[in-house]
Amino acid sequence: MAEKNNHLKKNSYPKGRQVDPSSLDLVQRLLGERARDRQHLIENLHVLQDQLGFLSRDVLTALAADMKLSPSEVYEVATFYHHFEVADYAANEMPEYTLRICNSIACELAGADELIKKTKYNLGEMVRITTVPCVGNCDKAPIAVYGKRQIEQANPGKIGVALEKDQFTPLLPDYQTMEKYQVEDNGYDLLKSCLEGDKDRSDIISEIDQAGLRGMGGAGFPVAQKWRFLEKTGKPRVLVVNADEGEPGTFKDRYCFETTPHKILEGMLIAAWAVEAEDIYIYLRDEYPQIHELLTIEIEKIKQAEISSFTTIHLRRGAGAYICGEESALLESIEGKRGLPRNRPPFPAQQGLFQRPTLINNVETLYWVREIIANGAEWYQAEGQPRFYSVSGRVNNPGVVRAPAGTTATQLIEDHCGGIMEGHSFKAFLPGGASGGILPAKLADEPLDFGSLDDHGCFVGSAAIVVFSDQDNIRDIALNLLRFFEDESCGQCTPCRLGCEKMIGLIETDEWNEELINDLSQVMRDASICGLGQAAPNPVNSALRFFGGEL
Length: 551
Prior knowledge:
The chain is an alpha/beta fold. It has 4 domains: 2-91, Orthogonal Bundle (Arc Repressor Mutant, subunit A), CATH 1.10.10.1590; 95-164, Glutaredoxin, CATH 3.40.30; 178-379, 3-Layer(aba) Sandwich (Rossmann fold), CATH 3.40.50; 392-550, Roll (Ubiquitin-like (UB roll)). 44% of the residues lie in helices and 13% in strands. It is built from 24 helices and 13 strands. The protein has helices at 2-11, 21-31, 41-52, 57-67, 71-80, 105-109, 112-123, 156-164, 178-185, 189-195, 201-211, 223-229, 252-259, 261-275, 289-304, 327-334, 363-375, 377-382, 409-416, 474-488, 494-507, 514-527, 531-535, 538-547; strands at 97-102, 127-132, 144-146, 149-151, 237-243, 277-284, 312-317, 358-362, 387-393, 399-403, 426-430, 439-440, 464-469. A 5-stranded mixed β-sheet has the order 10-9-13-11-12, sandwiched between helices. It has a 4-stranded mixed β-sheet with strand order 2-1-3-4, covered by helices on one side. A hairpin with a 2-residue loop joins strand 3 and strand 4. It is globular.
């Protein structure tokens, strides 16, 4: 018996997928001296994806071995995020070109479907075309993405040129550098006054409180109150900057970074000082490679000038998951995991990133922190508590508008965006991106502010205004938005995962079953873990409420 067992042991093989030595060598060469701890899994996946163009299963298995993780962990993370392509291509089987075309609502209005058809016809088999959700450039729709280059107002001709000239790297915007910021806006003088003791932490928080600043990521929670939560917690503390704006129709954070990044960075550092955060993590959506590049440059300048010596700044890339805009899913992603929302309590202020007390603020929020400290709470109040509105769709001049809180859709369209396109008449609008619901033009004079649209079953959220005309079909709009939510559901909870799927089935029918839709909507709102599932029914519910006669 002993001899038999020895024979079996001698000729047996380890269970699971085996590590290919050549793949392991490749992974180790490409990663070099990069960190191998779990929190850097997504960063390391990015390195391999950027260099190889895709992630084979052999490469994932090798990465798991190199990082001392289980292959299943690595595979689950890689397949969770849109921007990682897991495939078993051989190098010579890779398509010559891969083109991603945004099919989110603004791009669909601008002719994304037709662009896909024409591009396939003109370029044929040499190009592989995939669709992607919103890439945060809605004012220049339709958008095609080649490598890390966004082709704005794309057409087959522009795409052909980009492919022919191999224009796949991001274009840096003409932004205010650190040197310009210091000369033009006395950059970092406010932070220095804090560090030198001229300002007190409690005074800074009180100023923010008096200004009435609310979080600009969508929830609108009072900022000062959020900061004060951390006063009762232990240390070390962390500040997380949520730069993962993924709401279709929203691009204000991109605008702030592409114009005056240091106003955000100084606001960030003031916030970190005020709550005594020893680390700062900037979680940037991967659709903004140009911003990643400029931040890498400008953060290094800050470090070299020793402006940020009291804290450590970490820049992390997202990987194409809308759910990571939800703060607890974002924390999971930074930790190198799938972006699954956490059950609460505990709240991030109690137990957040790496189990440490964590403050999470949006990009625009930190922009206004700096402006309020520079100009005072009274100034902010006198300016009408301004915010940035992203406006796209059927307007002549889409873009980001700075305006007082409570500005109406009519004012944005007529006073700032050049009116409705010629040949179109104003029909409807999204007041808060995909999740904020659909409102008719007759409500365009309602103030767009936190809580102002509650009676209509809608909300302003991140202030993404998408304008529709008489040439747009409300049923098609609702279907586009629901398909987005279905695609972006993390799958963790049944009400959201199956609810989105079932809702699409209900609205694809010739006649909508209002009773069943309302029942399903209520279940999704009551039982979903996070805001994605809770808000997903909003486009359908508002379509029934305001446009029932044409559905």
